[in-house]
């Protein structure tokens, strides 16, 4: 799941980005609306978290969302703002935002809101995936093989979530990079293969199928 995090306050942006990454999300960070708009043109985001007051102006977040919706980008948007007035909340939702969370906030509430708005859309990860002797509890980010709980890193979770949410669908390496990694990914590395090996070591070889020279997929049964 790839997230665009637009927040100019580094004291808020950095810990939130770190928390999301630990939860398996790929996070691209932007501290102003101009950078965010550039990133939107480059990468396929699943959700955007947007502040309203930005270096470009007090309503720059609103203006960016207005342009995004006008350009037919449909990914969900969660406003994150210290402005707690009813009119601000209504205005954000009328512009095309899907939810509005007032600062200060609990980090867990952000991920809960993200999952809630994704459930309304098309990119829903199931609450739970059962496969052979494995259970993936996506809501609580807990994973089991038989009776044993297995610890997965953030990137392992992100890769497994992408593949298992679409059983049988073949993902090329380029698609995996676009959905699981952020703009800091080094395309010259074999890091995807490393994470696939890690998942197979922890969960078993059957958890991911390789289509040689093309990519990977989660089995249908």
Automatic annotation (TrEMBL):
PROSITE patterns documented for this protein: OMPR_PHOB, RESPONSE_REGULATORY
GO biological process: regulation of DNA-templated transcription
Keyword Lyase carried by entry: no
Residue ranges: DNA binding: 126-220
Gene Ontology CC annotations of this record: cytosol; protein-DNA complex
Residues with the 4-aspartylphosphate modification: 51
Superkingdom field: Bacteria
Response regulatory domain boundaries: 2-118
Keyword Transcription attached: yes
CDD domains reported in the protein's UniProt record: trans_reg_C
GO molecular function: phosphorelay response regulator activity; transcription cis-regulatory region binding
OmpR/PhoB-type domain segment(s): 126-220
Species for this entry: Deinococcus cellulosilyticus (strain DSM 18568 / NBRC 106333 / KACC 11606 / 5516J-15)
Listed InterPro entries: CheY-like_superfamily (IPR011006), OmpR/PhoB-type_DNA-bd (IPR001867), Sig_transdc_resp-reg_receiver (IPR001789), WalR-like (IPR039420), WH-like_DNA-bd_sf (IPR036388)
Protein name: Response regulator
């Amino acid at each position: 799941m790839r997230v665009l995090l637009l927040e100019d306050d580094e004291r808020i942006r950095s810990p939130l980005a770190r928390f999301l990454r630990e939860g398996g999300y790929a996070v691209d960070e932007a501290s102003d609306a101009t950078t965010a708009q550039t990133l939107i043109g480059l990468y396929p985001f699943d959700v955007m978290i947007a502040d309203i007051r930005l270096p470009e102006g007090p309503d720059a977040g609103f203006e960016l969302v207005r342009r995004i919706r006008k350009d037919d980008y449909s990914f969900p948007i969660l406003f994150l703002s210290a402005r707690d007035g009813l009119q601000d909340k209504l205005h954000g939702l009328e512009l095309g935002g899907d939810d509005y969370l007032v600062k200060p906030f609990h980090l867990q509430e952000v991920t809960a809101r993200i999952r809630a708005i994704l459930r309304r859309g098309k990119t829903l990860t199931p609450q739970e995936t059962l496969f052979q002797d494995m259970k993936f509890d996506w809501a609580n980010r807990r994973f089991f093989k038989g009776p044993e709980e297995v610890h997965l890193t953030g990137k392992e979770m992100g890769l497994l979530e992408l593949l298992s949410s679409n059983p049988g669908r073949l993902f090329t390496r380029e698609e995996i990079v676009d959905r699981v990694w952020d703009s800091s990914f080094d395309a010259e590395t074999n890091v995807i293969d490393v994470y696939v090996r890690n998942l197979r070591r922890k969960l078993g070889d059957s958890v991911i199928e390789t289509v040689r020279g093309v990519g990977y997929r989660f089995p249908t049964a």
